[in-house]
Amino acid sequence: MAVTSPTKHSAEWVFSHFENNSGWGNDAVAWSIGLLSSCYVLIGYDGATHLSEEMNNAEMGVPRAMVGCLLVNGPLGFAFLLIILFFMGDISAALATPTGFPIIEIFLHMTGSVAAATTMTAMITVMACLSTVPLLTAAARIMWAFARDGGLPFAERIASVDKRRQIPTVSIVVVSFLLMLLSLINIGSTTAFNAILSLAVVSLQASYLLPIILLIWRRLFRPDTLRWGPWRLGKAGLPINIIAVIYLMYTCIFLLFPPYQPITPVNMNYAPVVLGGALVFGCIYWPLRVSKRYVGPLTDAEILEGTIH
């Protein structure tokens, strides 16, 4: 792409040029709202933790997988981003593309070939589809674990394991069905689909935030209650935890903002409404049903003794 592109931006343009087409008068706000894409890329690095019960030596394997995926994919993604920025051409032309996908217009500009642009777009599409496989695996494993511990409706059925294949077939089918339903939302309403994406990112950010805050509290006030595993960051751990909390709180706030001004029913970010509804539902459903049968994750001994059938 770098060879075939007819234009090239300067390093000054790539690293210092800022273009605000969002309608927000404050560039810092516009930039902060634009963090959604970068946050979405990072939501999968905890996938290994959800499969830790299936791993040998998970104490070392899980952190290696989490850190390794960032060390490998981070530089590759950054290199791809630099190539796009240096050779993408006019931003306005990319945004005004009749395809509705600026990246397709950028590929066409950089290669000058419809076939090449189509091939590159197809490669990204295939990678996006393949990336859903580990996400599906992690989501199904989480659903099965919650059902096994009695934390979901129809827990006994969802927690069942196929005796021949030794996999949680029901949870896989349920998660797959829900994913297909969510994908159909984009056909009816792009606004609703974008709200689901924002909600997914914000919810995951919040799920990372709470345990880190509790860990900081125990580091500072109850260090004697912590049991460290073989993988530890030592003195760097606390500063990293604090930076993570600041970042997560910052992104959780701005990811709930509408992406464009002026705000209309079409471009409104409805993630706060959906998130509020989910919280209200949880506050009602927990005391009425779940708290009576869910007492937290079960130990291996309880599972082996037949607590869950």
From TrEMBL:
User: Which GO MF terms does the UniProt record name?
Assistant: transmembrane transporter activity
Membrane topology per the record?
Answer: Multi-pass membrane protein
Q: Which domain of life does the UniProt lineage start with?
A: Eukaryota
TM spans (from-to): 28-45, 65-88, 120-146, 167-187, 193-217, 238-257, 269-288
A GO CC annotation given for this chain: membrane
Pfam families reported for this sequence: AA_permease_2
Localization in the cell: Membrane
The main location class comes to membrane
For the keyword Transport, the answer is: yes
Keyword Coiled coil among UniProt keywords: no
Q: Which UniProt keywords apply?
A: Membrane, Transmembrane, Transmembrane helix, Transport
PANTHER family to which the protein is assigned, alphabetical: AMINO-ACID PERMEASE BAT1, GABA TRANSPORTER (EUROFUNG)-RELATED
Name recorded for this polypeptide: Choline permease
User: Which species is the source of this protein?
Assistant: Fusarium globosum
